[in-house]
Amino acid sequence: MATRIRRLLCASLAAVLAACGSAPVGPGFYRVEQGDTVSKIARANRTSVQNITRWNSLPNADSIEVGQVLRVAPPAGTAAASTGGLRTAPAPAASANRDTAPDPAPAKAPAVSLIWPAQGDLIRGFDGKTSKGIDIGNAPGTKIVAAAGGTVVYAGNGLRGYGNMLIVKHDSEYLTAYAHNRALLVKEGQTVTQGQQIAEMGDTDSNRVMLHFELRYLGRSTDPSRYLPPR
């Protein structure tokens, strides 16, 4: 029973981490779901793995995440690559009574205004594979603040490997996560402002005192350092 509850918690937290990418997608795009592969998505959209990989600038065909938005039809004004006998499905036309979203996957994500969530040394950077964020080391109890204003959508310790964690949703595109805290000072559903203290640095589920900080754009892990001011 305990194992089943833990699995359910982990599944629900994975959904929360992709929550910023839950809005409808426009024609010619697809949002990755649990169990999807690039090959499966390509088959469903009558195109090739090579096209999906190229249109979305994926490092490889395995580098997709739940909640990520993928282009599944060729960009306007370009010819589809050879699909080995598969025909690329055209993007469906928008009907007058159907709501359509603007292009959810711009070539360059719009900047979000972040501040550093804690003082300390940058002890680990982002690589998108083994590290989905950055790690900041300092003394126990160091103040942790909200990197941007938003709503707390998770506060707890149900996800193994993250310890006491907070997730703050900033808008329909961005959220930030704060892990390994000694104490959580805000609750789920609470609105926080940029710079407001939300936690104290700790070492829960970690072998050293640090803050593990993640930024997600449309459900996909993004290097927070690109959005933080120099210091």
From TrEMBL:
Protein name, per record: Peptidase M23B
Residue span(s) of domain LysM: 28-72
Transmembrane portions of the chain: none
Protein family (similarity comment): Belongs to the E.coli NlpD/Haemophilus LppB family.
Record-linked CDD domains: LysM, M23_peptidase
Record's signal peptide: 1-25
PROSITE patterns reported for this sequence: LYSM, PROKAR_LIPOPROTEIN
Compositional bias segments (type: Low complexity): 78-89
Keyword tags: Signal
Pfam families (UniProt xref): LysM, Peptidase_M23
Organism of this sequence: Caballeronia humi
